[in-house]
Amino acid sequence: MKRYPLPLLMMMLCVSPLAPAQLQAPPDHAVVVAVGGPGDDVVLQSYLDQALRANPALAARAASVRASDADVDAARAQEWPELSLNARYTRSDGGRTIDIPTGDLLNPVYDTLNQMLEAQGQAPQFPNISNQSIAFLRAHEQETKLSLTAPLFAPQVWANVDAKRALAGASRAEREAYARTLVRELKRAYYAAVESNAAAGILEASEQLLAENVRVSQSLVDAGKATRDRVLRADAEHLNAEQQLDAARAQTAQAKRLLNMLRAQPLDAPLQLPTPESLSLPQRRAVPTHSRPELRQVERSLVAARAGERAARDASLPTLGIAADYGVQGEDYRFDSGSDFDTVSLVLRWQLWDAGSRSAQRAQARAQTAELQARHDDLLQQLELARRAADEDLATALRAVATGQARVAAAEEGFRIAERKRDAAALSQIEFLDAERNLREARLSLAIARCDAFDRAAELELANASYALPDDLTAP
Questions:
Q1: pLDDT by residue (tens digit) across 321-349?
Q2: How many CA atoms lie within 13 A of 13 on its CB side?
Q3: Which of 24, 114, 144, 227 has minimal CB crowding within 10 Å?
């Protein structure tokens, strides 16, 4: 697995969310790692716990899960009846009217009756009346009612609920995938900090050795046993070591800031960093593996796509619902038999023609399902490929540690011999500096190899999804 330089890794983490570098399939058994013995990773475990509790990007994905669950509840609510209170009060003026010629019809009759009464000596009793003009709109009226609606047959609603449930599962799988990637990235940052801190310690010891070499070289020159060029060469090597030490310290500071960022702490918060030698090397052993959440995410998305395909097919079916109203209406608010009303309706809706819209939706849903199925099949291959690569990388890293240990032992013995010869003026300056450089490079190489083994172990742990996350991050 390629290891990114710290500045590049920091830039990647700041610009974009953590993305899995490799994916792998879940075979029946796979090689996983157990890093060290009890107590070896107490500090690292505390940093991991902090990151899983407080990392803002992980918190964002947890909020996304809650939003998906709420979306499921909203979809399920559409399967239940809905009760609402509707009230309306209206004042109106003008509008259409209907004219009734009441006066034209009745006044001639009334006149005749009045004449007959007068002929009998009685007073007229029937007055003249005017024609009537009745407005269609009441001057004021109200309607207040309770409305109940419920779906009886709504296959699209049912398919939508299934799709929302599947998408919620995909959201939880995405959260778990990010949590596992966060664990991997924090471990890589932790071991990078351990590595750079160890390198700074090795270079500091080398700088002290070279400073002592400058002093010894000057003593030999003063005693007439060496020429001035010996001191100049020793001083140049000493300055070079100081430059490397300064760079290593800067890299350590960068690694610490990255580690603090991942665990959601102030960038300059203090850290505890062990030496590479104090950590037990990771071991390889075969145990049952767990399904990668990335694979479950695609599988749940595929279930949602199939539910969407079913909803597109069901759009050709009719929907049936019930609607019931009860309330009062009139010019005033009255609750009596003359003012209240109730209605019950069965509502059928069947869309018979839509210019091919539903056919296009069905074709789109089938294409999306086929796309996700192809991604799923491709992901299976990527999963297995990455798992095997991570296993092989760890084995190579462990062999490199064994080689590095032998190299350090040889370099230390060679330097002890060279140091005694130098003190006796029986060794050239070039040979002594070569011995010191070999020792420095061997120690640096071993520190890098040990930390690289831990880095590869973290990659394999991600590949097998074997890190024990909290239960709230692995809920199905």
A1: 999 999 998 887 877 777 889 999 999 99
A2: 28
A3: 227
